[in-house]
Amino acid sequence: MTQGLPLTVKRSIELIGLVLLAFAINQGQQILIPILMAAFAAIALLPFYRFLVRIKLPNSIAIVLSILLMLIVIALVVIFITYQLKPLINNYASIKLNITNHINYLSQWFIDKTNISSAQQTKIINKQTSIFLDSAGNYLSTAAGSVSLVLMFFGLLPIYTFLILFYKDVLIQFLFMWFQKDEKEQVGLALKGTVSIIQSYIVGLLIQFTYMTILLGGALLLFGIKYALLIAIIFAILNLIPYVGALVGNFIGVLLTLSSSPSLGPVFTVLICIGVVQLLDNNILMPAIVGSKIKINALVSLFGVFMGAALAGIPGMFLSLPLMAVLKVIFDHTEQFKKWGVLFGDEKPSSKAYMKVRNWHK
Q1: What pLDDT digit, counting tens, does each position of 130-187 carry?
Q2: How far apart are CA 172 and CA 178, in angstroms?
Q3: Which end of the chain is more exposed for a tag (fewer CB within 10 A), N or C?
Q4: Is 181 within the bounds of a domain?
Q5: pLDDT in tens, 214-273
Q6: How far apart are alpha carbons 171 and 80 in whole angstroms?
Q7: Residue 352: inside a domain, yes or no?
Q8: Which residues contact 259 (CB under 8 A, 6 or more apart)?
């Protein structure tokens, strides 16, 4: 359609398309995000669904059993987290005392270093607390109004997943009908690559969540850290968000440790344990699981996480990396958008190509 257009017009159309896509995601996130998550869930469940079909189960029953498996896994994770939160709630008095002691210690440190009296500190803290509580009140009132949306989201997820699996052949036929005969081979390869990369990514994340919880939780238990499993679970979940999640996970781990310990020693233990487990995860375990499948460079990944957060909040952050991986597969199989695939990838240009680019102005 755009073959006869000048290069500048083509680039302008591509950029306008990206802006319109971002606008559509932002405005229609309550519709699009559940559908996207259901599509990923359906692709992840395909192997189990096909196994059930091969053993002669009816199509509808195979789909229902596949979705039931997904819901059981989610329910087990939620129950496990809830069980780990109980001691935290029951020890509220002890937590309050520890936090008060840490605040008093920090206040005295400020007095020694800055000569700001405790009365002045209290005034500043009260002012900032008032601002924070006003903002938090507005946020909570908005969140309370969106509880129905959360329930609708999780209610729609299994329904969408069922319908996508049930009508998968119709959706594939619809996709192929958009392309000419000579393009269908590349479309098929892109579709196969998309399914493979999503399955590898989701299975890899489940494996990563499991071993991160076991390794970090085991290490913290070994050193006698309170709420060890809770810290491990929270960190394992947040670590699914590229780059940003690990930072937030470290922060929450420190807060939980401070609230449960009168001294600062356990905080350093938690940070060291998290650092060692992350080192193993980033350099040995995760590359061996999904590293050969997903090759998105760090710059684009970080940009995608923040863009996902801006467009669709927390779900957008979780979906950012698999979506970029899918886009890279599509770009790599499309001549018109292959340059975007190069931008997304982590492959460095060959020395000859690099020399040509570096010396373009000579």
Answers
A1: 554 455 445 444 444 445 555 656 678 888 999 999 988 888 888 888 877 777 787 7
A2: 10
A3: C
A4: yes
A5: 888 888 888 888 878 888 888 888 887 777 777 888 878 877 777 766 666 777 888 888
A6: 37
A7: no
A8: 95, 98, 99
Classify each residue of 284-323 as buried b or exposed e, where b means 16 or more C-beta atoms within 10 Å of its C-beta. Answer: ebbeebbeebbebeeebbeebbebbbebbeebbbbbbbbb
Which whole-number Å values give the CA distances from 102 to 55, 262, 294, in the listed order? 61, 7, 43
The pTM of this model reads 0.69
The whole domain housing 22 covers: 7-347
Residues 63 and 162 sit within 8 Å (Cβ to Cβ): yes
Q: Is position 279 within any domain?
A: yes
Of 276, 40, 319, 301, the residue nearest 161 (C-alpha) = 40
Residue type, 39: A
Measured CA to CA, the distance from residue 345 to residue 201 in angstroms comes to 16
Please check whether residue 360 lies inside any domain of the structure.
Answer: no
> Into how many domains does the chain fold?
1
